[in-house]
């Protein structure tokens, strides 16, 4: 922690940049940003436990039910990069407030939905609002906390919120669905969103928008949004149409063409939407790639373990959430209690590598998960090793934002969140498809349902472990980060 100033008159501090809030207000602002992130993360995971209740109540078909998740993922993932850059151009505070307002209003619409179409539309709007608010959150954070140790602590709080929020969402989703109705998984966002808006108005700094001579890059915005939308749509519908279908391959080719056109546009435009200088930093580019691989792999932990508990072990929604609670606890402890100290002592790269090794252990153990598993023997050790996520994510967040200049902070924040969503979409499509294919093959061969399901999950866990090994290999190439020097009291000359 920063040293306490002596009771003598200190030297006059350098003037703070315009719009920078006082020390206490900065931590209040961090609380607002973390609360908004918590809403977003909770909304992504809280739905998974309530899906059976939603299907039964609204009459979703099996294929249609997947769009309760897919509509959110497509809007969120496709608009993050654009929202981040627009935040730089019109003001990150304005973008955050607008996004939080849209998300809160869409949560009300989702809560009162009485038909599949209304719920899917509300989920799409939630994704839009989440993209607007999330894309600029890290950009605001890095301009608030410029001192290395305080920034590390802020990243730890922010990462804890994201890492533990997914597991908390499963616990909360199960409890709300069983005790009340599935509608309350959306209504719970209303007081949180309203409070975030009220506190954000005075707490967040009134940032100065970047100059945008020549206007925003409209063509670049259309290309990247169209490419990401098409690509994520192709990925999340793989299970329905097949990876080798003409439809999936055609959409994938179109997405690649649009994204290639976007990169060409950014290299030649006078005022690009995403200046390619952001990707010249080895730390930034590498951290985004590691995150994409890690998030794709950990879909198998977050979702497939919950499915195993319900479909194979016979747990209810609330029991499943409580069974996942130890993971949330150790992730939180690692994020808040250990990561800052370890990063200060060993650097982001070494902490990231340690976290990834622990996560490989998580999925490695899950590949041996028996059909009739004992929670204490087979699952609790896995939950405890999940602490690796609490170590890896703060280090990745610091690396992912390390090379961004102040005028590009919103863009770097949007890019970091975009790779996270792409990783999630890839994990959903690839791992769930592989698990389902293995399960179907074994069921057709006459194997018992529980055994077929478990074998399918084993395949997904093994592929996820391979993705984490690839993430480890990329992490080894990241530059070593210097350790922060001890704070010293300097006397002005």
From TrEMBL:
Q: Which UniProt keywords apply?
A: Antibiotic resistance, Cell membrane, Membrane, Transmembrane, Transmembrane helix, Transport
Its predominant location is membrane
> Where in the cell does this protein reside?
Cell membrane
Per the UniProt record, which residue ranges are transmembrane?
Answer: 30-54, 60-83, 95-114, 120-142, 154-176, 182-204, 216-236, 248-264, 285-309, 321-338, 350-367, 379-401, 422-439, 459-478
* Pfam families registered for this protein in UniProt: MFS_1
Membrane topology of this protein: Multi-pass membrane protein
Question: Please, which domain of life does this record's source organism belong to?
Answer: Bacteria
Q: By its UniProt entry, which InterPro entries does this protein fall under?
A: EmrB-like (IPR004638), MFS (IPR011701), MFS_dom (IPR020846), MFS_trans_sf (IPR036259)
In what residue span(s) does the Major facilitator superfamily (MFS) profile domain sit?
Answer: 29-482
Query: Is the keyword Mitochondrion in the record?
Result: no
Question: SUPFAM superfamilies from the xrefs?
Answer: MFS general substrate transporter (SSF103473)
* Name by which UniProt lists this protein: MFS transporter
Q: What is the species listed in this Swiss-Prot or TrEMBL entry? A: Streptomyces roseoviridis
């Amino acid at each position: 922690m920063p040293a306490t100033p002596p009771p003598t008159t200190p030297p006059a501090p350098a003037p703070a940049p315009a719009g920078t809030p006082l020390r206490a207000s900065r931590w209040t602002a961090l609380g607002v940003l973390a609360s908004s992130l918590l809403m977003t993360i909770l909304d992504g995971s809280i739905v998974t436990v309530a899906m059976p209740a939603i299907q039964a109540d609204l009459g979703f078909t099996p294929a249609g039910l997947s769009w309760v998740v897919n509509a959110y993922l497509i809007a969120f993932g496709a608009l993050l990069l654009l929202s981040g850059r627009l935040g730089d151009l019109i003001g990150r505070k304005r973008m955050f407030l607008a996004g939080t307002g849209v998300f809160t209003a869409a949560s009300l619409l989702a809560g009162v939905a009485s038909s599949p179409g209304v719920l899917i539309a509300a989920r799409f709007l939630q994704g839009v609002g989440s993209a607007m608010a999330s894309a600029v959150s890290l950009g605001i954070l890095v301009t608030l906390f410029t001192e290395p140790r305080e920034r590390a602590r802020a990243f730890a709080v922010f990462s804890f919120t994201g890492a533990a929020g997914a597991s908390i969402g499963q616990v909360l989703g199960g409890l709300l669905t069983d005790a009340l109705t599935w509608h309350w998984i959306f209504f719970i966002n209303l007081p949180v969103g309203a409070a975030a808006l009220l506190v954000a108005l005075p707490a967040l700094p009134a940032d100065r928008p970047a100059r945008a001579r020549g206007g925003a890059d409209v063509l670049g915005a259309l290309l990247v949004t169209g490419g990401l939308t098409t690509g994520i749509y192709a990925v999340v519908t793989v299970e329905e149409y097949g990876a080798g279908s003409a439809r999936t391959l055609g959409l994938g080719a179109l997405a690649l063409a649009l994204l290639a056109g976007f990169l060409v546009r950014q290299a030649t435009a006078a005022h690009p939407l995403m200046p390619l200088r952001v990707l010249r930093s080895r730390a930034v580019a590498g951290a985004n790639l590691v995150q994409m691989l890690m998030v794709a792999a950990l879909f198998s932990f977050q979702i497939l373990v919950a499915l195993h508990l319900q479909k194979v072990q016979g747990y209810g929604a609330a029991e499943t959430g409580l069974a996942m609670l130890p993971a949330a606890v150790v992730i939180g402890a690692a994020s808040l209690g250990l990561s800052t100290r370890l990063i200060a002592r060993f650097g982001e790269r070494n902490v990231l590598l340690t976290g990834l090794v622990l996560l490989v252990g998580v999925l490695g153990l899950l590949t041996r998960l028996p059909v009739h598993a004992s929670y204490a023997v087979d699952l609790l050790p896995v939950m405890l090793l999940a602490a690796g996520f609490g170590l890896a994510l703060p280090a990745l967040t610091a690396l992912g934002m390390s090379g961004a200049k102040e005028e590009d902070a919103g863009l770097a924040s949007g890019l970091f969140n975009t790779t996270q969503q792409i990783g999630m979409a890839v994990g959903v499509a690839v791992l769930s498809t592989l698990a389902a294919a293995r399960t179907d093959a074994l069921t057709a061969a006459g194997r018992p349902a529980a055994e077929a399901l478990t074998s399918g999950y084993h395949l997904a866990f093994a592929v996820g472990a391979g993705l984490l090994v690839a993430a480890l290999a990329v992490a080894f190439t990241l530059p070593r980060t210097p350790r922060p020097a001890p704070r010293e009291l300097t006397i002005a000359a």
